[in-house]
Design brief:
The chain has about 350 residues and is mostly beta strands. It contains seven helices and 19 strands. It has a domain of about 210 residues. About 10% of the residues lie in helices and about 55% in strands. The strands form two sheets. The protein has a 17-stranded mixed sheet, sandwiched between helices. Strands 1-2 form a two-stranded antiparallel ribbon. A hairpin with a 3-residue loop joins strand 15 and strand 16. The radius of gyration is 24 Å and the shape is elongated. About 10% of the residues have low confidence.
Amino acid sequence: MGRFEAVGYEFPNVSGRLRPGNRAWDVTVSGDAITGRVGVPFSFPGEVPMVLDLDRLHFGARAPGLGERPDPDPRKLPAIRVDIGDFIFDQRRFGRVEAEFSRGTAGITLNRFTLEHPGFKAEGRGSWLVRGESAACRLEFDVDTNDVGALMAAMRIGAGVEAEEGHVSAQISWPGPPEVSALGRLSGRLELSAANGELTAVEPGAGRVFSLMSLTHLPRRLALDFNDLTGEGLAFDKLSGTFRITNGDAYTDNVTLRGSAAEIGLAGHANLRNRTYDQTAVVTGQLGASLGVAGALAGGPAVGAALLLFSQIFKEPLKGVTRGYYRITGSWDDPQVRRIDARELKDDRQASQGPP
């Protein structure tokens, strides 16, 4: 077949051989984007699981000409067992994937999944269930990496952070089916951390997870003010933060970057639907660094009061002498970074906390 469509996605140049078994079709399939074996139950739903035992599965392009279709009903899906050697979705490389779905009267439950990629490992669980008149998804996962740059490249997040260690943990949910457009409907909690790395030049529009924090856009702007701190990149010992996500708005009041020459705090929110920033950063320099004390204190008492106000947000107040406060607004593709004073800072604290 030159063009094969399944569950709304298109697979080009596919050939296969079907053998009927006792309760399922045994399908051997080969193509540009899919190779391996698929077990398809004769009836959906039922007690016989669907089996995906594939060497590779690459997809992400929605089949054209579909028009408007109702959301799929998870209650009509069978149990599913997945073992895919090389999984790529929407140009993002997940490596080897193993997963097990069980079915129930309300839909399907993802009992477990694991991802193994040269750049990272991940595991988690989730569900896709109907409650009342509508369906919703839930996903919990943990990601560990010893090469943050490789993780960002695999997920097409773009440049911005290089680090020897990284961790991401999330508990998220959204109404509707599992699909890429669900990003703007997310709610939940996301924690991330990295160690022994640096902020590097950021690509326009860079990514999902790290675009929650405009921190990655600061080195270029900061280099105009104090190149002695940044050079080609802004080195750090530890980077961490927590985001509370409500219907596509991600709020934080504790993103911190700590290094030998400077510390940065970030508070505010990012809109995942419109891909925009509304955040504030405070940058401090250590007294022992090459910053001049007189220059660092140029803001006077107003800046000192602002530092106190901003530091109250953080459990571990930022150390060092204040160097400046920066407001980051606009789109992820073209963020606007400008220096602000203490008066504007007061208005930003409430924005970082979000709705009750």
